[in-house]
């Protein structure tokens, strides 16, 4: 059986076409996820910039103006500075609790994205108890705040952790009651 060069070229072009279809499929799956994330990120950057400009106007001082045009990139500069800061651990505290606490807080928030539908058939974890799982996972964050405050072995840091956890819980209770009341109404 002899295969000529035109058949080989047709097979190669068909395999390229199939791989392009796979790439396009992956891109179209990722677009509904990254569109709201990009929109929220840009919205937060604009709100931070407006807050700094309005605060500077109220306090009669110069606002952020050196990082990019009109200080638009100031929030990105602050985030970069935060990433490259030296990681200080308390000498007399529990370093494991101090390090694991913020991780628990961030991981619980990131895990709550599992039940959010990003498209018609694009849900990372399709559960029938999605709202209740979202409430349960997001209520773990105050534990991380409390752990990092306690792990520093400093009474003021511990009070700050208690305050942050109490504030987080005080936001979660009304949110949970609203969500549960709507859920119970829909169940009937």
Automatic annotation (TrEMBL):
Cross-referenced InterPro entries: NADH_UbQ_OxRdtase_su1/FPO, NADH_UbQ_OxRdtase_su1_CS
Source superkingdom: Eukaryota
The keyword Lipid metabolism appears for this protein: no
Transmembrane segments: 26-50, 97-116, 122-148, 169-187
Cellular component terms (Gene Ontology): plasma membrane
One GO BP: aerobic respiration
Family label: Belongs to the complex I subunit 1 family.
PANTHER family: NADH DEHYDROGENASE SUBUNIT 1, NADH-UBIQUINONE OXIDOREDUCTASE CHAIN 1
The protein, known as: NADH-plastoquinone oxidoreductase subunit 1
Organism expressing this protein natively: Helianthus tuberosus
């Amino acid at each position: 059986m002899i295969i000529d060069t035109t058949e080989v070229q047709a097979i190669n072009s068909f395999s390229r076409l199939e791989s392009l279809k796979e790439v396009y499929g992956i891109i179209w799956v990722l677009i509904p996820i990254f569109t709201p994330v990009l929109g929220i990120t840009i919205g937060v950057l604009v709100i931070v910039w407006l807050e700094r400009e309005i605060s500077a106007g109220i306090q009669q001082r110069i606002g952020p103006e050196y990082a990019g045009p009109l200080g638009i990139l100031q929030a990105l500069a602050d985030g970069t500075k935060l990433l490259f800061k030296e990681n200080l651990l308390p000498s007399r505290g529990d370093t494991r609790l101090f390090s694991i606490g913020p991780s628990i807080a961030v991981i619980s928030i990131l895990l709550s994205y599992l039940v959010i539908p990003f498209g018609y058939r694009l849900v990372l974890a399709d559960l029938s108890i999605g709202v209740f799982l979202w409430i349960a996972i997001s209520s773990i964050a105050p534990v991380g705040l409390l752990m990092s405050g306690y792990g520093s072995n400093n009474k003021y840091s511990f009070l700050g952790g208690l305050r942050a956890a109490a504030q987080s819980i005080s936001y979660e209770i009304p949110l949970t009651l609203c969500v549960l009341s709507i859920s119970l109404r829909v169940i009937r």
